[in-house]
């Protein structure tokens, strides 16, 4: 039996019960038969980026663990809200800890911005992932505006078009992973 491909899911929200966490949990259910999905839960524990600490001798252990979790899986799904027309600071901070590495280079990713509006945050997420060398396209990058009206309290997507977008994004990422690995 072939080993399951591994996916790391990163929520840009540090809020308990966020819609972004709910979307990632739904995706975990969608892929559970064929893929192993792990939700990264250490975003809030990462120290503020400091270039002086970005070396082997002084790298904080939380950053080392995060980089390891990003480098190991075959693919990554990022689901984030937009804060003040940008990414949440904690998510951008995590990405800043990756700039001096190649851990996102050629990594297949799916990008979801789920927020009230989200347009500017989604543009920023796409730009940062391109800068880090991640591999994605229009089929693996979606914006869900007005997300709170599209997901119920149990985390089910109740808006048919949104459910279709998420399902198609997951399907395309899984196809990409099946074809080319990481």
TrEMBL record:
Pfam families: FMN_red (PF03358). Residues 6-136 form the NADPH-dependent FMN reductase-like domain. InterPro entries: Flavoprotein-like_sf, FMN_Rdtase-like_dom, NAD(P)H-dep_reductase. One of its GO terms (cellular component) is cytosol. GO terms for molecular function: FMN binding; oxidoreductase activity. This is NAD(P)H dehydrogenase (Quinone). The lineage of its organism: Bacteria, Pseudomonadati, Bacteroidota, Cytophagia, Cytophagales.
């Amino acid at each position: 039996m072939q080993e399951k491909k591994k996916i790391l899911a990163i929520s840009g929200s540090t809020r308990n019960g966020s819609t972004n966490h709910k979307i990632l949990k739904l995706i975990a259910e969608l892929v559970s038969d064929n893929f192993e999905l792990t939700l990264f839960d250490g975003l809030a524990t990462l120290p503020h980026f400091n270039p002086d600490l970005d070396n082997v001798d002084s790298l904080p252990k939380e950053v080392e663990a995060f980089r390891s979790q990003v480098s190991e899986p075959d693919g990554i799904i990022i689901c984030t809200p937009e804060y003040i027309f940008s990414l949440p600071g904690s998510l951008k901070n995590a990405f800043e800890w990756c700039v001096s590495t190649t851990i996102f280079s050629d990594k297949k990713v799916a990008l979801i911005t789920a927020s009230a509006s989200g347009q500017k945050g989604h543009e920023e997420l796409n730009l940062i992932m391109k800068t880090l060398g991640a591999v994605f396209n229009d089929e693996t990058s979606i914006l869900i505006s007005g997300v709170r009206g599209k997901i119920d309290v149990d985390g089910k997507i109740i808006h048919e078009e949104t459910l279709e977008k998420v399902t198609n994004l997951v399907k395309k990422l899984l196809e990409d992973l099946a074809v080319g690995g990481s």
